[in-house]
Amino acid sequence: MSCQCCALVMHGFANPKRFLKIARWLTPLLVVSGLLIAGGALAWGYFVVPPDRLMGDTVRILFLHVPTAWLGMGGWSAIALSSLVFLVWRHPLAALAARGAALPGMVFTALCLITGSIWGRPTWGTWWVWDGRLTSMLVLFFLYAGYIALAQAVARDGASSRLPAIFGLVGAINLPIINRSVVWWNSLHQPPSITLGKSAIDPAFLVPLLVSTLGFSLLFGGIVLARMRALMAEMQAEARLRRKALGSELPQTKVTA
Amino acid sequence: MREGLNQMGFVEAAYAIGVIGTLLLAAWSWLAMRRAEARRDRIKDETRGQ
Questions:
Q1: Distance from B8 to chain A by nearest Cα, in Å?
Q2: How many CB atoms lie within 10 A of CB A255?
Q3: Interface touch A61/B11, C-beta < 8 Å
Q4: A81 in a structural domain
Q5: Which residues form the domain of A128?
Q6: Do the chains contact at B3 and A122, CB–CB below 8 Å?
Q7: What is the predicted ipTM?
């Protein structure tokens, strides 16, 4: 029964008209609030937070590196969840949501890899190591690239969106590997500092980190909505052009017949 | 461990790349949305007029 209620609510929000009505005011709200909160948290991390006893000033990279890492994985979680919804309920909006999350997820994964590499040089003495965490994160970046290429090819050729949806679901196998990599294998990367209900981070670092994560998450949501709106507008424009082309072809068919 | 490196240089490089990358992504996505919606509305007006 509760599952049926969830499905009803989800079907209601999956209505494109209702989605656009909400997205029109939610997109700028998420983007602006995300920019302000993330910007404030980064300034907090750069100017206010004290240096760490072991890592010194480089600890400030935490406020950028960790949110981008979480959102890199969060982006693929969104792709996998939307793909599941698309495959089960055939909502075209779910396919759009998956495509909308792909580019921001890939950019945040790239930013996580770059900032992590910059952080690694002064703390580990190297820019890169082929260990479980870094390699699985790099694999995630390539999965994003593959997903974007596949989704664009499918959209261009007018093929079924099932193929990228299956790819999105299968690619989710990498998420637990990223998460557990520092536990399963020896790594220069530190083990998880924050687990459910527990944190090994001092509040002086934890609070701005959580604020930064909130800001980047809001921004991520706004960017996904903007990309979904762009994709939807492109589809509507193409559909209208196709109808127009069909309409102008009909009289010709009559004449030749 | 720190090799006498200027740590703030690494912090500034990471912040610059992170902030510029995020702003570019947000601006590009926003402009792409505005462009796509303007094109849709233009096509809608054109086809309605015919």
A1: 6
A2: 6
A3: yes
A4: yes
A5: 69-189+202-225
A6: yes
A7: 0.89
Q: Which residues of chain B lie closer than 8 angstroms to A213, CB-CB?
A: none
In a domain, A138, yes or no: yes
- Each residue's pLDDT tens digit, A225-245: 999 999 999 989 988 888 888
Tell me the shortest Cα–Cα distance from A100 to chain B, in angstroms: 10
Domain assignment present for A56:
no
Residue A104 lies in a domain: yes
Q: How distant, in Å, are the alpha carbons of A36, A67, A77, A112, A135 from that of A81?
A: 28, 20, 6, 22, 24
Q: Is A103 left (phi over 0), alpha (psi -120 to 50) or beta?
A: alpha
CA distance A212 to A222: 15
Q: Using one digit for the tens of pLDDT, what is the confidence trace for A45-89?
A: 999 999 988 888 999 999 999 999 999 999 999 999 999 999 999
How many interface pairs between A and B have CB atoms less than 8 angstroms apart? 112
Query: Distance (Å, rounded) from C-alpha A167 to C-alpha A143?
Result: 9
Residue A43 phi, psi (nearest 5): -65, -40
Could B22 and A219 be called an inter-chain contact, meaning their C-beta atoms sit closer than 8 Å?
yes
Is the CB of residue A83 less than 8 Å from the CB of residue A165?
yes
What's the total number of domains in chain A?
1
